[in-house]
Amino acid sequence: MDTDTIERLTTEAEKQGLSINVIANRALRKYVEWDVVSEKFRVASTFPSLLVKLMTWVPEEHVREIGKSQWLHEWRTVATSHYLEHGIEPRIRILELFGRYGRRFHFDQATTDSGLILTLLHGMGRKWSLFYEGMLEAMLKESLEGENEHFSLTSTDNQVVAEISMTALKRAEAHRDQTFKDTHVPMSRRERQTYRSSDPSQIA
After folding, report:
1. Is residue 82 within 8 Å of residue 37, measured between CB atoms?
2. Domains in the chain: how many in total?
3. 99 near 120, Cβ under 8 Å?
4. pLDDT digits (tens, 9 = 90+) for 40-92
């Protein structure tokens, strides 16, 4: 590293009472977990005050639909493109990343005997709660194959809580495992050649 970077790193470590290695590891982790993703998918950041102002011009009856659209056309693309796993796990991971690094909300999850609880704490007003409700609804319907009765959404002006039943989680996990088993990946060149010669119509 250049001298200027080392000096700034040393100063920041002293301010926080941490070692330089801890600060450097945090920065590297953020790079691989978030910076690569946000650059690839052109995730923009801005001040919360601007987001609140922009939302005041959106009619309340349209906010949930905007949230659903945001999931279906943006967030889902990040989840399915960046992570190879099927099911609800990569979708929850995207919420974690946006909560940790995007700083649009604080994300938390807790497992109970009855299921999984996801919490988005944002402090940006009722319309943003409706926005996140719509987004979570689209995500959960997709992940749980439209089984609305197995999850519920509640909100206040500053947070949204999604409760997912254990039954739905087990079904989603079983479906994910079956999808993985049904996916056939040729393991050798000989197998690929056999596949092509026996069914050339499958080759795009």
Report:
1. yes
2. 1
3. yes
4. 888 888 888 899 999 999 999 999 999 999 999 988 888 877 666 667 888 89
In a domain, 96, yes or no: yes
By C-alpha distance, which of 172, 36, 182 is closest to 92? 172
Is the pTM above the cut of 0.90? no
pLDDT tens for 130-148 read 999 999 999 998 888 655 5
Neighbours of 71 (CB within 10 A): 23
Which CATH number fits the domain that encloses residue 61? Answer: 3.30.1380
Provide DSSP, 7-26.
HHHHHHHHHHT--HHHHHHH
What is 103-147 written as a DSSP string? -SSEEEEEE-SSEEEEEEE--S-HHHHHHHHHHHHHHHHHHTTT-
- Helical (H) or strand (E) element with 171: helix 166-182
Most confident region among 87-96, 150-159, 162-171, 193-202 by mean pLDDT: 150-159
Q: And the tokens for 6?
A: 């080392």
Contact between 63 and 130 (Cβ < 8 Å) = yes
By the 8 A CB rule, do 151 and 165 touch?
A: yes
User: Apex CA 171: angle with CA 169 and CA 175, to 5°?
Assistant: 115
* Domain housing 109: 48-181
Compute the distance between CA of residue 129 and CA of residue 95 in angstroms, rounded to an integer: 15
